[in-house]
Design brief:
The complex is a heterodimer of chains A (380) and B (288). Chain A starts with a helix and ends with a strand. Chain A folds into two domains: 204 residues, Response regulator (Rossmann fold, 3-Layer(aba) Sandwich); 141 residues, 3-Layer(aba) Sandwich (Rossmann fold), CATH 3.40.50.2300. Helix content of chain A is 45%, strand content 18%. Chain A is built from twelve helices and 14 strands. By secondary structure, chain B is mostly helical. Chain B has a single domain, classed as Orthogonal Bundle (ABC transporter involved in vitamin B12 uptake, BtuC). The relative contact order of chain B is 0.20. The chains are: A alpha/beta (380), B mainly alpha (288).
Chain lengths: 380, 288
């Protein structure tokens, strides 16, 4: 036998072995999700590693709690929930990979995810085409509203958040001239536009718009431009890493502007590493309706009491999906239709969640945090 | 406030960081003549070593920094011995070396992420309380000043070593022609081993200083390395002064480039400059 023929035979043998292993381990393959006694598969995507891994891991813990509660109460119509967790590292390409795997390989009934708007936006068209309902628990980019019939979220769009921030800074803080720095991705660009529109509509002035690459940790020149811009407010829509670097540099340059951020700053990692040097910094975050029971369970699971608000929405999101599956069965289109008429009350995120025609929540509530002595505190 | 002094200082700060990266990279490239992408990961190795010694174990800051640089050097040396030496004795092409070093970079990043998680970490104990110097209305921190002094210091030492010591001359000879160097009796393996140790230690030191200035993450290496490579190429690859000149030129172009336009253009500007140089002056400003 020639060397090439031998090689080809080896590869064929290897492929056959792999196929057998895959077949045996998946116990019957694709149709398993329709049989009545087998578990119902729900996919989860989130950044389990990388820049915002903290948020993803936190949300995963909340989902595990929700699944545990449903399963120990007998599951959905007698069927247990089986979660498939995928890591999208908060980025588009990995989001597509994760969603493709969940839809095509795991054949999930619905996807809970993702945290980051770039990831959610990247796989939304795929899920839409595959007619798989997606419920994001943390993606706030305005563009998600238009991304399809099957795409839902239980957290409010940034349009609400930026509008809320603009009103607060203009009316309550009395700021008139704003400089905006945003991280150059869907989330940051969405916030920049929404804030600048809302601030201008109130009568304010945008004196500087600047941005930063998501991978860059050098914002010195941007901060120097802010300092000399004559603004009395810096609206800084940054991700945690860039924020740590940017706020450090702002402090070094002795920026006098009030610095105001958005919900990505609801991350203790930032304030732990900056300490009291970030005192006075404020940001909006989505309000929650957290219960003591939920807090206790999260503390048990995490070993500390830092709950990212997304986790509340992830917990409710899983409950909402379970409710929809309960009424509609595992047919994905039926689940989608059921989601539009869902009315989730007394969740840990919001007291009432209903979806509008875009799959967005009808109501939104926000709170403002300020950093005091290196710790985030609620204003008012 | 006038922005100009700060812009100049920002450029000098960024230039100091690129200088450190370019110096180590240039030293290795100039000797073995292949693009060692794995060098990028050594910035993270240095940074995370200090993170472990200084923040986790609580060892003295200066001891931690020296240990961190030495560990980066040792890892660089081990990678050379285990990965690059066998490939070089097999006379592998530059392409194979490049791919192998990409493998080293990716594997090292993954291992660091597994040990320390991918979270962005700062090395300084209390951010924002650092000593700050004001120069003509611009601000520079102590860490940044140390980076600048160290970068220029290493450049001078390297230049002196190349010029006056036998060791430096041996490195230069190997860079010119490795085979002939062997024939005239230079122990090339030993010298190249040292080059990898020293170059990697410089890279590690750069990572450490960046960690004190802003912060570290496992994937920090690649973008830093690319900036170092751009600096080396526009300055004159393999040339000590060229790397430094290129580093500062790049930093000035980057920071002044985003003076009037938005900051996300920085990388587009940096790589645009690289392409212009490759097209019109591929040998860089200073020849080797």
């Amino acid at each position: 036998m020639t060397k090439t023929a031998k090689g080809i035979l080896w590869v064929i043998a290897l492929v056959i072995v792999v196929l057998i292993i895959v077949n045996v381990s998946s116990k019957g393959g694709k149709n398993s999700n329709t049989a009545s006694s087998t578990p119902i598969k729900i996919g989860f995507t989130g950044p389990l590693t990388g820049d915002v891994a903290n948020i993803g891991q936190n949300a995963k813990a909340a989902v595990e709690i929700a699944v545990g509660e449903i399963n120990s109460a007998g599951g959905i119509n007698g069927r247990q929930i089986e979660m498939v967790y995928e890591d999208d590292r908060c980025a588009g390409p990995e989001g597509v990979k994760a969603a493709n795997k969940l839809i095509n390989v795991d054949n999930v009934t619905a996807i809970l995810g993702s945290v980051c708007s770039p990831a959610t936006l990247s796989f939304a068209p795929i899920a839409e085409k595959a007619q798989t309902p997606v419920l994001s628990y943390c993606s706030t980019a305005p563009k998600i509203s238009e991304s399809g019939d099957y795409i839902f979220r239980d957290v409010p769009s940034d349009l609400f958040q930026a509008g809320f921030a603009a009103k607060y800074t203009y009316n309550t803080l009395g700021k008139r001239k704003v400089a905006i720095i945003n991280v150059n991705n869907d989330w940051g660009l969405g916030l920049k536009k929404a804030f600048s529109d809302a601030f201008k509509a109130l009568g304010g002035q945008v004196v500087l718009e600047d941005g930063d690459d998501p991978t860059s940790k050098d914002l010195r020149t941007q901060m120097a431009k802010v300092k000399s811009s004559g603004a009395d407010l810096l609206y800084f829509a940054g991700f945690p890493d860039g924020t740590v670097a940017g706020l450090k540099e702002a402090k070094t340059l002795k920026l006098t502007q009030t610095i105001f951020g958005a919900d990505a700053w609801d991350d203790n990692k930032i304030w732990d590493s900056l300490g009291s040097s970030a005192d006075g910094v404020m940001y909006t975050r989505v309000g929650t309706n957290s219960s003591d029971a939920f807090k206790t369970k999260m503390k048990e699971k995490l070993g500390n009491d830092s709950i990212v608000y997304c986790s509340n929405y992830a917990y409710d999101g899983l409950k909402i999906l379970a409710d929809a599956i309960k009424t509609a069965g595992t047919d994905r289109t039926a689940v989608k239709n059921a989601l539009y008429s869902i009315k989730h009350v007394n969740g840990v995120s919001s007291s009432l969640i209903e979806f509008d025609a875009n799959g967005d929540p009808k109501e939104a509530n926000y709170v403002i945090d300020i950093i005091k002595n290196g710790k985030a505190e609620i204003v008012k | 406030m006038d922005i100009l002094p700060q812009l100049i200082l920002n450029s000098i700060i960024a230039g100091a960081i690129y200088t450190m990266i370019a110096l180590g990279f240039n030293l290795i490239y100039g000797t073995v003549k292949f693009f060692d992408l794995g060098y990028g990961a050594l910035t993270a190795v240095g940074g995370y070593s200090v993170f472990y010694f200084y923040k986790t174990l609580g060892i003295n800051i200066y001891a931690s920094i020296i240990l961190g640089a030495i560990i980066a050097g040792i890892i660089g040396f081990i990678v050379y011995k285990l990965v690059y030496t066998p490939l070089r004795t097999r006379k592998s092409s530059g392409m194979v070396m490049l791919v192998a070093s990409l493998g080293v970079l990716t594997a090292a990043q993954a291992i660091i992420a597994i040990i320390f998680t991918s979270q962005f970490q700062t090395l300084s104990i209390n951010a924002g309380t650092e000593r700050v110097f004001t120069i003509f209305g611009g601000v520079i921190t102590q860490t940044q000043l140390i980076t600048l002094v160290l970068g220029l210091g290493i450049m001078i030492v390297m230049a002196l070593v190349f010029k006056f010591s036998l060791f430096g001359k041996a490195i230069k000879a190997i860079g010119d022609d490795e085979e002939v160097s062997k024939i005239v009796g230079i122990n090339t393996n030993k010298i190249i081993g040292w080059v990898f140790f020293i170059g990697s230690a410089i890279g590690g030191l750069a990572g450490i200083l960046i960690g004190f200035d802003t912060g570290i993450e496992p994937t920090m290496g690649l973008s830093l390395l690319l900036k170092g490579v751009i600096a080396s190429i526009i300055g004159g690859i393999g040339n000590v002064y060229g790397g430094v000149l290129g580093a500062f030129l790049l930093a000035f172009i980057e920071n002044f480039g985003i003076w009037k336009i938005s900051g996300e253009w920085k990388d587009a500007i940096a790589f645009g400059v690289l392409i212009l140089f490759l097209l019109f002056r591929p040998q860089g400003i200073l020849r080797r």
